[in-house]
Structure formats: C-alpha cells, structure tokens
Hints:
InterPro entries: UCP037205 (IPR017136). The protein has 45 residues and is α+β, with helices and mostly antiparallel strands. It contains 1 helix and 2 strands; from the N terminus they run ββα. It has a two-stranded antiparallel ribbon.
Amino acid sequence: MKMKRKSDLPQKICATCGRPFSWRKKWEKVWNDVRYCSQRCRRAS
C-alpha cells in the first residue's frame, strides 16, 4: 500500500474560524458531517 502525503488528503474550511483543516483518520466514517477543525471552534459556534 502506498503512503499518502498530507497535502494529498482532502481539506475543508472550518465553519467558525475559517481556516483550512485536513482529513484525520478518526473522522474516516463521519467526514461528510465534520464542520469544525477543533472542539474549541465547535464550542464557540
């Protein structure tokens, strides 16, 4: 299996801070529902 570079992973823009964030393994099954880059941004919304 070939390794992926971090730059090749999908990205989204955080709904609170507006910064881009990359896909994480723990979001594999819920990537379509992820809107925030962190718990801090999620609480601030």
